[in-house]
Amino acid sequence: MTSTNSLIRHSHSATVIGTFEDRVRAYPDRPALQRGELVWSFTELDRRVTRLAHVLGNLGIVRGDRIAILSENRPEYVEAVLACARVGAILACQNWRLAVPELRHCISMVTPSVILVSARHRPKLDELALDGVSVLEFEKDYEDRLADASTDPIQADVDPEDGLLILYTSGTTGLPKGALISHRAEVARAMAARSDFLIAPGDTMAVWMPLFHMGGMDYALTILTGGGKVIVEDGYDPDRLAAIAEREPLGWFIVIPGMVESMIETLKRRNSRPKGIRLCGAMADLVPAHQIAEITRLLNAPYANTFGSTEAGSLPADANPIAIGAVPDSLSKRQSPHCEMRLVDEEDNDVPVGVPGELAMRGPTLFSGYWNDEATNARDFRGGWFHNGDLLVRHADGDFDFVDRKKYMIKSGGENIYPAEIERVLLSDPRLTEAAVVRRADDRWGEVPIAFVARSDETVSADDLHALCRANLAGFKQPKDIRFLDHEAFPRNVSGKVLRHDLEAMLDTN
């Protein structure tokens, strides 16, 4: 009976490679991957993935081994994750923006047997001086090895709960952690994306966000396992993206906070006429409302009111897309039907309606814990729920509002101040393009809020903004200082989120 139960359990979830292979059989000649003028069909991509799987096998890679990759976005990156899926290995996706000590930490943590690297990032890898690890450089020996490799079918016995990816958290405090993401989670994320973000089978998507980030990798896999085409873009270039939108119908055209303004300017300058976009944007909570209205008009597509994380995917709460041309006065979310959610206090008691609480969730899109970090896993998965560090508030109608990150809170005179509530008031002035609130030590109050803002109109003054805050915020929430900063000078992570700790460091230099 135990053996039968095991077989039944094994049948309950698909794997990434299995769903990809189904698309190869169904659409052998359909375009799957594109970079510039080069296009690979599903058959051609599958053949290259098979060859790479044999190369990895010849290097001794077996199920559960880690392969690190240090590269910009390129088609070989997608081949690598599919080849890992085929042999049961785990692809550890390195953030090439990290400093050498941070990168050494991230690679050493996962003890890879092989490292894939591009020529652009080979010098940084050489600085690490790692011993006992095979290195394949894309521009050097990669293609020769593929050409010599077998095309015979190869398939490891991969379980849906096996790890497929290690994606690293942004590491705004301390060193990055490695989030292990299984086949089951990636398949579930693809299903949820098609349900919640209007992605349809056969869609085309330009993947410009780094493939070491969920915003790149999750949706590349979603599109491929849905039989669509992934256009691989080497980073954010608004002119290139606008040109793609002008010639290709797209499912989801992702633009993230901090980049919406430049995309608006580009679309206006080009007088762009997109061929057809079903959904645009991401993370509406971090984008000025007037920019949402403008970019939806220019792209003729509604804006995605998303909320998510590396650990959970673009869930567990979202909302109907923001209508074209609408200036949203609320960004409330509803619970996704793909998971369970609780809002809890410090003792893990459910908080009442109207009181901020930490999000605790469980569901099939969830990751499988942090690599080699049992202490953090025991804390964050306590009670069988993943506590993700985001503070939300539930309203009487069941909708949720994002409040802020639990780990970044300003304690002023015994009161809790969430930066996001001040930022929302500041960004209600359409002359601002960015606002970020940080904490500064204060002899009297312990901590006080300081606001950094970027403006598109030089006529807006600090006095104007102080008056706006006085009209909309309690006295203890008033920013004690408002500092102007160029939009491009705001430090950000790859998701476009402002790095508050970097702004705090600026307080010490001004």
**What name is given to the CATH topology of the largest domain?**
Rossmann fold
Q: Overall 3D geometry? A: globular
Q: Provide the spatial order of strands within the biggest beta sheet.
A: 6-5-3-4-7-8
Q: For the terminal residues, how far apart are their CA atoms? A: 70 Å
How large is the count of helical segments? 16
Counting structural domains, the number is: 4
CATH architecture of the largest domain: 3-Layer(aba) Sandwich
Q: Helix amount, in percent?
A: 25-40%
Quick one: CATH superfamily of the largest domain? ANL, N-terminal domain
Radius of gyration: 23 Å
Q: Uncertain spans, ≥5 residues at pLDDT below 50?
A: none
Main β-sheet description:
6 strands, mixed
Structural class: alpha/beta
Could you tell me the mean pLDDT?
90
The proportion of residues in beta strands is: 15-25%
Report on the architecture of this protein:
This protein has 510 residues and is an alpha/beta fold. It has four domains: 11-187 and 209-221, Rossmann fold (3-Layer(aba) Sandwich), CATH 3.40.50; 236-338, no CATH class; 341-399, Roll (Luciferase, domain 3), CATH 2.30.38; 413-507, GMP Synthetase, Chain A, domain 3, CATH 3.30.300.30. It has helices at 2-10, 16-26, 42-58, 75-87, 100-110, 122-128, 138-148, 183-196, 214-225, 238-247, 260-270, 289-299, 374-380, 419-426, 462-472, 500-507, and strands at 31-35, 38-41, 66-70, 90-93, 114-117, 134-137, 163-168, 178-182, 204-207, 229-232, 250-253, 277-280, 317-318, 334-335, 340-344, 357-362, 386-394, 400-405, 410-412, 415-417, 432-442, 446-455, 481-484. The mean pLDDT is 90.
